[in-house]
């Protein structure tokens, strides 16, 4: 989609435009830059409003504070301050040029040259800027590339990757969202030649980009491109064949990145690389690693033929997000296509109230069971009976059953 109104009118409709007006009143030379310009051109929703300024960050901060904005020096060493206006943040970054780079981090100096600043950005579609009058500044053909669905590096692709190897991953992420037709040949050749540089990146940054790719559009096409360039073997070693992912995507899954990561690492899969291993490899959060581990466990079983009692039992044993995720993985493995019965099973699970076992230790004590190992054994027995009843028995029924089983005093 391409916006039909003028760019100025499109910007005036953005959420947070009132804050932009105040920033432009304080620093008229400021322009919108990067992703927000790209998304305005495409007619996508704009979430973050990032700006660039030819003023040094200290001077920009003084002007914005004089205009009544709260200013946070979020990254002064990189020239970035954050203006908070009506509780909304606006990042304002001073124009920069690279002095040196180590393959990930750059030493920068301030400049007032807009093209010099645009030249250090990764892709032509991210090097666009837009002033308050709606004038678009495009130094490298980014607007045409955006229309054509081309993701192309600014300048020589190999040089840009040598400056920052994370740009390989960003290429795949932007190709997934904006790419059409044949991917840029120079970019793919450079990534193939320099893919090992990605092993020097922080694994946390790699994981962040990978999860964004896994949650995004055109995933299978993008993953195949990553495989062709040798990037997938570097980033996700020992993964299952992409046919496993294709089966999940064919089920019309909900684009949850952990489901998609899980299907690439089935239990006991390639060379012993399992769910726990890939979670550790990517240094995922403890919660995400626990979720992957839960997906891998074969029990409790899950099938479309289960009645409500059986579903209540599995709802008691496992949390709903785990059960829903496992349902997609099982459907992909068994069918590899959309299925009304699996959809209905997920609906039933989601609509079902979480079962709560109605007895606790105080109930046992009231019935004369002494605290300690004996109480634990009786609690397990009555809970097992409750599960066999489909988690339907209330506290009174559980106490009655327990009284019938307890030996006479």
UniProtKB/TrEMBL annotation:
Keywords tagged on the record: Magnesium, Metal-binding, Nucleotide-binding, Nucleotidyltransferase, RNA-binding, Transferase, tRNA processing
PANTHER family found in the cross-reference section: CCA TRNA NUCLEOTIDYLTRANSFERASE 1, MITOCHONDRIAL (PTHR46173)
Cofactor(s) recorded in Swiss-Prot or TrEMBL: Mg(2+)
Domain Poly A polymerase head: 31-152
InterPro entries assigned: Bact_CCA-adding_enz_type3_sf (IPR050264), NT_sf (IPR043519), PolA_pol_head_dom (IPR002646), PolyA_RNA-bd (IPR032828)
Family membership: Belongs to the tRNA nucleotidyltransferase/poly(A) polymerase family.
Residue span(s) of domain tRNA nucleotidyltransferase/poly(A) polymerase RNA and SrmB- binding: 183-240
Pfam families: PolyA_pol, PolyA_pol_RNAbd
Full protein name: CCA tRNA nucleotidyltransferase
